[in-house]
Write a sequence for this structure.
């Protein structure tokens, strides 16, 4: 099956009125598209409006956020809904029917594309029991500390000693395995906030690694050398309370000293996790395991074309925690992708289809988890492909043991037919991935060789054991399978799946008296036409034409 | 009205398919009443010459079981084809090649050497092996030629329908007979069995995990499988996902994995292709070394994947030339 998306709407829905959402809305509205901007809180601004200062420049939000909100509110192309949440979404690119709920009232809108800018959620730092968050009143999250300083509840002038724990619960297999990237400098920002107000407060920062990329290193150095913040390399083992005083126990890994530091306040610079609710409502595939349940990133894809699901973009901290400057940059590129999508929604793309007359549905389920995009789902007792998620790689088609799953243009019978027609005795047959090796071949192949036959596949993951058997049935001399380098598969993991299939095929064909060396696998880049030429020349052997 | 003529014939087979006809029980009486049996070597005494004298197409339907491995089998099969309106490949061996088809991993010479010479129980000091022609005291004795390659029925003659299974279950046999006798015939070349995979009717389907990942393969005789769990989940090679259903899950209920006697599912050709492509995709292996270890634990992968279907598979047999 191949689907053509009928654009019903050229409007954009932006979910989340933080900096990311605002910046996307502003740019898209400038390009003359209508934007619905929804925010679940009563006011726009998101996380940034709760912050006292931003790092590294220490700029108050009034300088970044307020001008943005003012501009947005003036824009005629933007309809703002506050205290509004999305409760349901259906449809495909060009035609998403979204149901909103504003203070108990429901409203339906039709949009062509959606930008998710829902921001991030704090990791539940109370899970790290040894740090006693929730048990000790003076163990705070950075945002709480900032709010208390802003409101005057805490006056840094009164503070003698503050311990800031970076990486609290993060990069720890027992709690939050991933690095949230921003927390190092959120911790340092608090150190600077205190030192700016009271240089005599002893500020201790415990850290594992200081992830000071870009110009952040100088911020770190400034705090260390000029502000005299005490840096302790080590992960505190516990926070204890004795006679109403807090003590942080930590081993300084550099000096080898066991320290017990008295603190007026302890700030836990914790990590962040994705906000699954909206993401899963829109069927956005999430990384699981130690990657923190953020949307899966397809590093090798052109996101504007290949957003997944098609026409849905994730931006800002909803995609992964990042600072305000980075969020703004990402928001602008997302706006561009959204504009391009709205401008030309007509996407025609082959997608996998499951024939339910043959599929054994929930009793088989072998294809359910092979899709890199989670496009195969179980709905009640049916297994279905969601067209807007499918990218047409064919990994599931090759996995399906029943032949119920087909991919237009690359069905089993199409490919068997190609092999049947093309391959003659003693030919060298090359199965080439359209993203890499086929491109390399095309560049050089103007005058290909008579005894080299090329079969183009959408991904090496589409190649099933049967294609190899069929090729040997035609008495081919040998087979080349060539696709993107490992870790560079356009579809994330197609080449790894192929490698597993080849591993079992090698054992299989040996039993048929065909040496496994007759199958060669080569990872290749799109530009390596010289290499594919020499590989094929070597494989075809014999005389030249 | 004259009753339709029916022939039963056996080629390279074990005789189980003949048993299957008898297993119809009382129903067989209905069949006998409705038809006129003209050939059934296992049960009734007819001669080939009776068949030879018939008009072409005189027999309404011939049910032929067994694979083709000798010249004689091929000759009789071709004769029956000529004389019959319909030919039904009866059982796995006729349909796919079956267990005798596994001989395609060897050739006639190797088989004769093993069977007549090298087996420990063989006493054959002169090394006599069967020959097609022998002259004994001036008399010429002949034997049919023993082929190098076992063939399926449809590789020798045109086949109208297939009745799958080792052996075909009585309900499918009765169904096929009824649709032939009542002239409610499906599309030519149809298989008298459902189009879905065995998983569809597998009693263990309900307990199948959402995500199947295979870490190690084990042979069925080495383990005591959990009778509720999917065999693949337990690392036991099961051809069910790539095999047609309709068998009545006899093996599964006896706590044995499917070995594929019903053949590939409608629209697919090669069971080994389908099952291996699927399970390799689900293999839990992160490095090439892990992959190798995992698939090396799947012993005799070709034998297990093509237990019933080697002659009908894409490669048919082991390569002779290298």
């Amino acid at each position: 099956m191949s689907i053509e998306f009928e654009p019903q709407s050229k409007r954009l829905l932006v979910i989340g009125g933080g900096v990311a959402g605002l910046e996307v809305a502003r740019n898209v509205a400038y390009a003359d598209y209508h934007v619905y901007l929804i925010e679940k809180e009563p006011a726009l601004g998101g996380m940034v409006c709760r912050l006292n200062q931003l790092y590294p420049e220490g700029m108050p939000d009034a300088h970044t956020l307020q001008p943005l909100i003012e501009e947005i509110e003036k824009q005629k192309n933007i309809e703002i809904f506050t205290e509004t949440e999305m409760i349901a979404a259906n449809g495909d690119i060009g035609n998403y029917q979204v149901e909103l709920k504003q203070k108990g009232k429901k409203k339906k809108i039709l949009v062509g594309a959606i930008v998710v800018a829902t921001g991030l959620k704090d990791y539940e730092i109370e899970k790290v029991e040894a740090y006693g968050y929730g048990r000790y009143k003076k163990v705070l999250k950075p945002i709480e500390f900032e709010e208390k300083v802003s409101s005057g509840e805490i006056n840094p002038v009164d503070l003698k000693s503050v311990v800031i724990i970076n990486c609290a619960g993060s990069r720890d297999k027992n709690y939050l395995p991933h690095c949230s990237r921003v927390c190092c400098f959120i911790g340092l920002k608090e150190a600077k906030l205190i030192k700016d107000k009271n240089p005599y407060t002893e500020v201790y920062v415990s850290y594992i690694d200081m992830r000071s990329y870009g110009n952040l290193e100088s911020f770190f150095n400034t705090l260390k050398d000029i502000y005299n913040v005490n840096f302790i390399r080590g992960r505190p083992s516990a926070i204890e309370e004795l006679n109403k005083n807090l003590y942080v126990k930590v081993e300084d890994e550099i000096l080898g000293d066991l320290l017990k530091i008295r603190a007026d306040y302890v700030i836990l610079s914790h990590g962040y996790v994705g906000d699954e609710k909206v993401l899963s409502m829109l069927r956005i595939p999430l990384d699981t395991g130690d990657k923190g349940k953020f949307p899966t990133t397809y590093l090798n894809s052109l996101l504007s074309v290949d957003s997944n699901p098609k026409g849905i973009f994730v931006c800002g901290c909803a995609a992964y925690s990042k600072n305000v400057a980075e969020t703004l940059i990402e928001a602008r590129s997302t706006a561009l992708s959204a504009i391009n999508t709205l401008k030309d929604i007509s996407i025609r793309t082959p997608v996998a289809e499951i024939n339910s007359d043959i599929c054994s549905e929930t009793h088989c389920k072998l294809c359910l988890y092979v899709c890199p995009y989670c496009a195969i789902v179980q709905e009640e007792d049916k297994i279905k492909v969601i067209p807007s998620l499918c990218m047409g790689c064919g990994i599931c088609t090759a996995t399906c043991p029943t032949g119920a799953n087909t991919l237009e243009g690359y069905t089993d019978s199409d490919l068997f037919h190609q092999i049947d027609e093309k391959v003659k005795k003693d030919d060298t047959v090359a199965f080439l991935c359209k993203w890499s090796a086929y491109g390399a071949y095309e560049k050089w192949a103007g005058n290909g060789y008579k005894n080299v036959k090329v079969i183009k596949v959408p991904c090496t993951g589409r190649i099933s054991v049967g294609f190899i058997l069929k090729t040997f049935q035609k008495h081919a001399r040998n087979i080349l399978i060539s696709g993107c380098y490992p870790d560079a598969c356009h579809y994330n993991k197609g080449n790894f799946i192929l490698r597993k299939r080849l591993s079992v095929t090698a054992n299989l064909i040996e039993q048929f008296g065909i040496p496994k060396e007759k199958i060669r696998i080569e990872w290749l880049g799109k530009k390596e036409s010289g290499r594919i030429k020499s590989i094929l020349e070597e494989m075809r052997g014999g005389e030249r034409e | 009205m004259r009753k339709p003529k029916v022939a039963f014939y056996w080629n390279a087979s074990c005789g189980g398919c003949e048993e299957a006809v008898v297993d119809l029980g009382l129903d067989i009486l209905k069949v006998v009443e409705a038809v006129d049996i003209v050939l059934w070597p296992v049960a009734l005494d007819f001669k080939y010459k009776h068949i030879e004298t018939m008009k072409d197409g005189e027999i309404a339907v011939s049910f032929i079981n067994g694979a083709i491995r000798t010249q004689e089998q091929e000759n009789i099969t071709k004769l029956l084809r000529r004389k019959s309106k319909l030919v039904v490949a009866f059982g796995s061996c006729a349909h796919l090649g079956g267990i005798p088809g596994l001989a395609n991993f060897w050739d006639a010479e190797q088989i004769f050497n093993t069977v007549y010479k090298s087996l420990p129980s063989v006493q054959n000091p002169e090394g006599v092996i069967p020959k097609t022609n022998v002259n004994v005291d001036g008399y010429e004795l002949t034997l049919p030629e023993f082929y190098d390659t076992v063939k399926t029925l449809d590789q020798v003659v045109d086949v109208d329908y297939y009745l799958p299974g080792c052996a075909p279950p009585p309900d499918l046999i009765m169904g096929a007979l009824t649709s032939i006798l009542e002239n409610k015939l499906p599309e030519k070349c149809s298989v008298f069995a459902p189009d879905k995979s065995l998983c569809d009717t597998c009693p263990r389907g309900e307990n199948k995990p959402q995500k199947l990942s295979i870490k190690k393969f084990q042979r069925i005789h080495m383990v005591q499988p959990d009778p509720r769990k999917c065999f693949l989940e337990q690392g036991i090679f099961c051809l069910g996902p790539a095999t047609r259903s309709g068998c009545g899950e006899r093996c599964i209920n006896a706590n044995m994995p499917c070995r594929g006697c019903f053949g590939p599912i409608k629209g697919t050709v090669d069971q080994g292709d389908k099952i291996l492509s699927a399970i390799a995709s689900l293999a839990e292996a992160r490095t090439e070394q892990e992959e190798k270890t995992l698939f090396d634990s799947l012993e005799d992968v070709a034998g297990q994947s093509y237990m019933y279907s080697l002659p009908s598979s894409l490669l048919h047999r082991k390569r002779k030339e290298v």
Remarks:
- The mean pLDDT of chain A is 88.
- Chain A has four domains: 12-119+273-343, 125-270, 352-407, 412-539.
- Residues 324-343 of chain A form the longest helix (20 residues).
- Chain A touches chain B through 45 residues (CB under 8 Å).
